[in-house]
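Q: What would this complex look like in 3D?
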Amino acid sequence: MSDVRTDESDESEESEESGETGAWRPSGDRDHHRRAGELTAVELLRWGWRQLTSMRTALVLLLLLALGAIPGSVIPQSGVDALKTQNWQAAHPHLTPIYQKLSLFAVYHSPWFAAIYLLLMVSLVGCIVPRLVVYWRGYRKQPPVAPRNLTRLPDSTSYTTDEEPDAVLERAQRQLSRGNRVATGDGWVSAERGQLREAGNLLFHLSVLVVLVGFGIGSLFGYKGGVILVVGNGFSNQLTQYDDFDPGSLFDAAKMEPFCFTVHDFKVQWIDSGPRQGLARGFQAPLSYRTDCGSDPSPQLSYDLRVNHPLKIGGTQIFLIGHGYAPVITVRDAQGHRLTNGPTVFLPESSDFESFGVVKASGRQPGKDIGLEGLFYPTFAAVHGQPINVMGQLNNPTISMLAYVGDLGLNGGVSQSIYAMDKAGMTQLKKPNGKVFRVDLRPHETVQLPNGAGSVTFSGIRQWTRLQISRTPDVWLTLLGVVLALVGLLGSLFIRPRRVWVRARRRDGTTLVEVAALDRSGGGDLVPVLSSVVESLRTPSSKGQEGARG
Amino acid sequence: MSVDLGVSTATWEHLSNQAIAAAGIVYFLALVSHLVEWSALRTVPVKATARTAVPASATTGGPPSVPEAPAVEHAGPDESTRFRIAMFGNLALQLTIIAAAAHFVGLFARAEAAQRVPWGNMYEFTISGSFVVAAGYLLLRKRFGLAWMGPIVTSMVLILLMVAVLWLYAPVEPLTEALRSYWLVVHVMSAMIATGAFTLGGITSALYLVRARAERRGTMREQGYVARLPALATLDRVSYRIHAFAFPVWTFAVLISGPIWAHEAWASYWNWDPKEVCAFITWVVYAAYLHARATAGWRGRNAAILALVGVATLWFNFIGINYFSTTSQHSYASGAPAISLRDR
Ligand code: HEM
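A: Here is my prediction, written as structure tokens for the whole assembly.
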């Protein structure tokens, strides 16, 4: 491959071999005059450090980072989707222990992933700091002396003229000083531009560090929690009120902000026509809140919570991320005692809000628990005897559940999911003819359970909202970091550092002018640059034959 | 985006479908013209067509060694061959422009039909993404001397459109609530532009590898397509410049606008969701590509390979994750619940 950036490639070639970098991208001036066998511990350390901070290592670490991130996008992650992870683990009993040893269910918290990015960070610091120093020192330096033999450079040209060398050089200096820093010497002019590219590059790499620090703070000190709240109910910001809670490792529960709120209503805008007819579209959860619900409560405020429009209370944010129905199902035992009261949250199984739920009614005597398990249809219809749900709106709300009696195991001291029933001690109720008994009810209907086990009433329907509540300290730091990184990146990629040299000398009675250019970014096309420089140097009077090398 | 022209949704949708079909047909004609052009070129050895009027210093690795369009100034022997080459080359370009215009009309009509930006599902994302590829090619053609890319771009866009129409088509539907956000518009727009540009860069890198291999093995035929590609140095440089454009755009899409939107919609700006992870992997691979170009021993061939790995992760992210991953909140492919229930 013929390389455009011969000069630079030589530099880095050398830097890779010897660990020392050329003038443009030095990583410090270290000596490397060492004979074989003379490796002391210090030298070994130095050598190790040099390896770690070399470009090639950075590259390999970057690729490792990419590779290391892959398992997390293929294998379910317990931090992302706990349920899915459990299901996967249940389905793969042999792989699971191995995967667990390799932390493959929590890749981004695993030691080996941390090792990769920590090494990368060390490498980054080791790479950036020396370069910052060099850049700082070199910034005010004059552009370098023009190389002796300009036509040896890959991008060069020459012509002859009758003008005096000084006149040519003087013009060159004037022309090139536009947008360049210019130095002159005996018989040459040297111009340089685009030094900010390196600044951009440094800014970018420093900002990567800032982002990581910000990200680290956010995930160490922050938390994320979720709660399903039946409309009308209140919430106060304490650990016990959350359904699920995912704190950072340095999170301090005492620092949770003491707000509280109540969701008053939940409004859904349904799509009435088109292919998505019957689906939900606009959501609103009007709520009232206090920023401080302690002994000295702050005044009550209100807010219309919507998707994409979170409520901010102090540093905590509350997001509306889900909703569903909570039928109120009243279970009575044989004596007519009410065993349950209040709404039961049913979880939607599809976008039309056909929902699944479990009602657990603990009986007054042991072994007399009643359990219901089944579906809620917002708009029920029977097509050829098959129950289906037409849409998410409450046009024909119906529950269809199976009933069980026995021991729900609620007193065993083991905490149970409220969305699943332990059927080990339960027997399913059957009709006298031996067929499966179903509790099929519409609102305000009641059905008697077989064998005089009791009755079930579908008393009404409430709605619930699922709220995500999270606090990420110092998000602004991360945001600032990425924005600065982008700015630095733009500078680094689009500023083209370039050097142009002109040499003029008397030869055989005419003046030979040589022009050469060097692009350090490897992205530039120097032909137009050279021709425009030559153009600007040649006055109409200067005739002479033009010679292009090569 | 929406202009009320008193035209119904159905009409717009119909117009969009027809425009996309028309664009497909015209891309096909453009491809045919390219094939005629290049088959005519086969009869002429490369040297006979190489433009000699390279600027003053012929020594640089810079200028394309093959001119802008497969030039014919010095096309050797045959007058009619020369004419054929020029005419079909030109025709192919004109047809591509027309096709891209129709393609744009298709997108615009789709946007009007849906009353929103046209990227709510895989079909829309594919027709938009392929438009970015075509438009990028047309815009950069002159600047970077991309004429040689014509046959590849037209066939690729044609295939993408066919896939979109045959397998991905979905009728116009409104966006679900979580997807209605300005940040999402910005996010998807930049992701799409970057995807188009990375794809162009991937084509360049692939051809770099093809040409490098042919040169290494000495199997380059005088008249072949490969012999007419720009010199390796030029391919490498063009590839770098396209990637250098795409990378910051991708950075903005994946690491700025995406997280901002995610933060508004799902309460946390980075969720390690498969789609995010994959986009991050793509980002890291392209960062490695940029590094490789500055690392001894990695320049050229290895850098080009990294660029291809990058494109692979990019397209896997778009196609694969949508179909294979069910945890992704970005899922276009499945009708995810209107607002999803995560962590449950
Ligand atoms: C977090 C890890 C890193 C990321 C994401 C990253 C990303 C990038 C990107 C995107 C560029 C392209 C910008 C340009 O071409 O100027 C770049 C360039 C560069 N990086 Fe890194 N980098 C990382 C770590 C490192 C490390 C550890 C080193 C030191 C060995 C390093 C040294 C360089 C150098 C010298 C350039 C300039 C290359 C050139 O002149 O083209 N980077 N980096």
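A: To summarize the key features: Residues A 25, 53, 55, 58, 62, 120, 123-124, 127, 201, 205, 208, 492-493; B 287, 290-291, 293-294 surround protoporphyrin IX containing FE (CB under 6 Å). The radius of gyration of chain A is 37 Å.
Q: Very helpful, thank you.
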